[in-house]
Design a protein that fits this description.
Shape: globular
Order of helices and strands: HHEHEHEHEEEHEHEHHEEHHEH
CATH class of the largest domain: Alpha Beta
CATH topology of the largest domain: D-Maltodextrin-Binding Protein, domain 2
Helix content: 40-55%
Distance between the termini: 30 Å
Structural class: alpha/beta
Radius of gyration: 19 Å
Strand content: 15-25%
Number of helices: 12
CATH architecture of the largest domain: 3-Layer(aba) Sandwich
Amino acid sequence: MRFSAGMVWALLCMLLVAAWPARASDAERNAPALTLGIVPYLSTRNLLAIHQPLARSLEASLQQPVQIQTAPDFDTFVKRLVSGDFDLAIAPPHYARLAIREYGYQALLAHKAPIRGVLVSARTQPLASADDLRGKTIAIADRSALLVIVGTAALADLGLREDKDYRFVEAPSHASALHSAVSGKAAAALVTQTALLLAPNELQRDAVIWRELAQIPGQFYVAHNRLPEARQKAIKAALLAFERSAEGQAFFEKTRNEGFREPTAVDNALLDRALPETRRLLGPVLR
C-alpha cells in the first residue's frame, strides 16, 4: 500500500500530538513548534521511534515544542529543505552543503561517524565478484544520494559502468532497497551501514555485505537562518547536552553515529566538489 504525502503528514501529526507530554504547560503547548526535518532513509515509523528521544530532549532544553517532519521520498525532502520548510534539519552532507551555500541554512554539527555505503545481497545468493553484477540491477534509495555518486565511481573502478554493465532501480528508502536485494528483486542493494543495522531483524538475518563501496562525512544538522543567531546557538548547545545525556548515549549507540563533531573545511571542500553532480541529478527538484 502506498501512502501519499498528505497521509504521511496526517500520521505524523497524530503520532506527535499523542506523544506530547501531559505535563507540558499551556504556554509550552501554544508556543510555535520548532520543525525538525529528517531525511527519509527509513520508514516514517522507524524514524519517529529513533528520533523521539532527541526531539523530547530539545523540547526540554529549549522550552519549545519540536515537531518531527519527514517526506515520502528523497526528492520531496530536498524540495522541502530548499523551500525552507524546516527550522532544523538532519540531512545527508551534500544536501546540507547545498542548503548552506544556496538556500539560507547554517551548519551546526555533524555526526562523528562517517556514512558507510555497503553493497548487500541476499545471504542465499552472495556475490562472489563484481562480475556477478553484470546485466543485473542494484537497488538504491535515490540516485542523487552522495553514497550512490561515490559508489558509482567505486563500481567503475571495478570495471562496471552504470547503464552498460548494471542498472540502478530506486526504492522509497534504504530499508525498501534492502528488501529488494533480500527478496531477489534486485541482485544487490547499495545502502548505508546504519540503515542495515537499524533494519528489521529478518532483513539483517537474510542479508550479507559483499563490500564497502563508499565512505562520506556523517549527516549534518543545519538550522535555517530565519532563526536568530542566539537561537541557533541555543539549539547547538541543546544538541550537545543531549549527546552527554543517558538518552543521547543510547541514541548514538543504537545508530552507531558516535556523537557530534564540528563540520570542517575538509568536509566543505569535499562536498563542494560534489555539488555540480548533486545539482545535475536533482535537476527539476531545484527548479
